[in-house]
Design a protein that fits this description.
The chain is an alpha+beta fold. The protein is built from four helices and ten strands, in the order βββααββββαβββα. The strands form two sheets. Strands 1-2-3-4-5-6-7 form a seven-stranded mixed β-sheet. The longest helix has 22 residues.
């Protein structure tokens, strides 16, 4: 099957989709507020389930958040990764966009499926999913987590995270340089030092965290895939980025205490870091 599954990356956003003519359709909207400070947020969800033939069924799901109170176009462009297909950031506009994406994907896979569907060999169900989740809104720093996952045959599915923090006060995406001036090599040393502080999918016989046992790199690269709370800065790595798939996704905390002397003063004041 042509690989048209959406993947969240640091620089682009692709939308998940499914196959053939829709048999089951579920388009819903709901209000979901998970922030620590009041922020109006809504969501649009599109779900489809399709049986292409006796060998293949496909499930599709995509959920986008909608922010009625945010009017700044540059900020909205950043929230949706500058996706040029979105002309209208209202609830109706986002829903229309998702409907178009689903329809386009159905047409594409229906056309391409003639080349590969006879090679499946046995009945299976593939799925694709994309979701946006508002994780927090602290001191007008809004943290959104983007999760994409898919299964298209093989031993296991794939998934990936993107963590993005937006400065709602100044209408911009937060960059790492807005938080710390610590040199890259020093941060890399802290990432390696803290690799086992949070559990992922790997433990030894004693149940201890051993993320380091699954590392595929000698130096953990500093990523812009980060978020923070009032105590730590967290760097999030999806499967295969730095470790084997069995390790799962790995989050590495770096405390503000460890960043002492290298924290941006404006950020430090706004987050009330001592």
């Amino acid at each position: 099957m042509k690989n048209t599954v959406a993947v969240i990356a640091l620089s682009s956003l692709f939308i998940f989709a499914a196959c053939k003519k829709t048999e089951n359709k579920d388009i819903t909207t709901n209000t979901e507020i998970k922030e620590t400070e009041k922020l109006t947020v809504d969501s649009v969800k599109v779900s489809d389930s399709v049986k292409i033939n006796d060998s293949l069924s496909v499930k599709y799901s995509s959920k986008f958040l909608v922010f009625p109170a945010i009017k700044d176009k540059k900020l909205l462009d950043s929230i949706y990764f500058g996706n040029k297909g979105i002309k209208d950031y209202s609830k109706e506009g986002i829903q229309n966009f998702l409907q178009r994406e689903r329809k386009d994907y159905f047409a594409s896979v229906k056309k391409d499926s003639k080349d590969w569907i006879s090679d499946l060999g046995f009945a299976q169900t593939w799925d694709t999913d994309f979701s946006m989740t508002l994780k927090s809104n602290i001191n007008n720093y809004m943290h959104i987590q983007y999760l994409s996952s898919s299964y298209e045959g093989g031993a296991h599915g794939n998934y990936g995270f993107s963590e993005r923090v937006f400065d709602v006060k100044n209408n911009r995406k937060v960059e790492l340089k807005d938080i710390t001036t610590m040199p890259k090599k020093k941060l890399e040393l802290l990432l390696m030092k803290n690799i086992n502080k949070l559990p992922s999918g790997t433990t030894d016989s004693n149940g201890e965290v051993k993320n380091s046992d699954m590392l595929l790199v000698e130096v953990i690269p500093v990523t812009e895939n980060f978020y923070f709370d009032d105590k730590n800065l967290y760097f999030h790595y999806s499967p295969y980025e730095i470790a084997a798939y069995a390790a799962g996704d790995i989050e590495i905390p770096v405390s503000f205490e460890e960043l002492k002397g290298a924290i941006n003063q404006q950020f430090k004041a706004r987050m009330k870091i001592k």
